[in-house]
Amino acid sequence: MKPPLGEATLRDLALHYAARFATTGARLESYLVRKIRERGLAEDADGRTLEVDIPALVARLVELGYVDDDAYARMRARDLGARGYGARRVEETLRHAGVGESLRQAHKPGEAASRRAAALMAQKKRLGPFGAQVEGRDPLTARKAHEKAVAAMLRAGHQYDHTRFILAARTSEDIEEWIDEAFEASGDEEGIEDRW
């Protein structure tokens, strides 16, 4: 069994965790609390349990730049968008990681990025014009396949309007034009990389 934690050991655990994982202040704090729960706190020379200010320790690591919620939110939002996940999924992931409301809003994808991510997910899942088109398919089977496709897109965090457009599109070129319209409307010439 590992010995109880002292302040120096907790600081070392926090540094090690921050060095190994991209994290937020809230996640680091919850990790340290879990470690204290597992191992307990050491006692001082008088036999009293040490008092450790976990929020102050985390704040110090934030101050030193070892933990940066903004950088974490930017990285996770970009990663999720590049994998085809929608704005709602990005929001849920950042909230679960303990990212504050203002940072979640700052890293929320724009309309063009949301459309691009929806197209990526449809392509990955082979939905809409990216899937096999079967002529003369049984209407009941076609309806079930459509409902399943809608559910997959919504689970990935996409808006219903985006899902409906992509599944109704005849060709992938229609989807590209739809995405380009959003980029032009936003005035973003660079593309999705600068929007996430």
Explain this structure to me?
The protein contains eleven helices and no strands. It has 196 residues and is an all-alpha fold. Helix 7 (111-125) packs across helix 9 (160-168) and helix 7 runs antiparallel to helix 10. The radius of gyration is 23 Å and the shape is elongated. The protein starts with 6 loop residues before the first helix and ends with a helix. Mean pLDDT is 91; it is low at 190-196.
Identify the notable features of this structure and list them briefly.
196 residues, mainly alpha, 66% helix, elongated
| Helix-strand topology string | HHHHHHHHHHH
Q: How many domains is the backbone divided into?
A: 2
Shape: elongated
Number of E strands:
0
Instruction: Give the mean pLDDT.
Output: 91
How would you briefly describe this protein structure?
This protein has helices spanning 7-20, 25-39, 54-64, 69-82, 87-96, 101-106, 111-125, 139-155, 160-168, 172-186, 192-195. The chain has 196 residues and is mainly α.
Task: List the SSEs and their pairings.
Blueprint: H1 7-20, H2 25-39, H3 54-64, H4 69-82, H5 87-96, H6 101-106, H7 111-125, H8 139-155, H9 160-168, H10 172-186, H11 192-195
